[in-house]
Structure formats: C-alpha cells, structure tokens
Amino acid sequence: MVDAYLRIWDERADFLNALERLPQVFCHRDAFRRNLFLRPDYIDTDRLVAIDWAFAGPGAVGEELATLVLAGIAFFEVELSIMGDLEQVAFEAYLEGLRDAGWQGDPRIVRWTMRRVHSDTVRDARSRRC
Description:
The protein is α+β, with helices and mostly antiparallel strands. It has one domain (2-129). Helices cover 56% and strands 14% of the residues. The protein is built from four helices and four strands. The longest helix has 23 residues, at 107-129.
C-alpha cells in the first residue's frame, strides 16, 4: 500500500500540470447527488439547484464529471451496473451546458479529462484497500 501511495505522490505534479494546461471553468467541486436537487421553478420546469459551495473554484473542463459519477457509486447511491450509462448522460448534459454558455471547444478534451480524473481516482481508491 505504501508503494501505491508513493507512486501516486510521485505522479501528482505531472497530473496537476496536465489539468492546469486544459481549458479552465468554474467548478462546484462537490457536485454529487447529495448536493444536487431538482426543484420546480415558477413555470413548473425542473431546475437544478446545487448546495454546499465550500470547495468551488477553477478546474479543468470535464474534471467535475468524474466526481459526479464516482461519488454516487462510492456512497452507494448509484448502482455500479449503470456507471457507463450515467457517465454518458452526464457527459452529454455537461457538453450541452458548456455549449449553452458559448464554449466551442473539442468534446474530446472533456472526455479525456473525465476519464483521466476517473482513472486516477479509482486507482487511488484501490491503493487504499491494499
């Protein structure tokens, strides 16, 4: 287990530098099911409401998607069997929001970031169980 932590620690600078070179967006940084709610607005259209903004700040485009998917699984709020579907729905909705805000970047950047953060998070979690 110590070796796994040391390897992650040694790779942290490369990982963080890669994230910093990507397009930056404002992130909630704690966006998962317990902090996200759908509420009807004045015309009875569901609106997403986010609470707990304590960790909000800049982050790489797509970075937050990994947290959204993995936190739901980690807290047993989402079945592991639907993780792929959840990733796809979250990815498409995230891209829609970016486009609505005027972003015209390459969706592959978002996908790469999501998968890289996801894989590093899973690897870190596995090393903790060793």
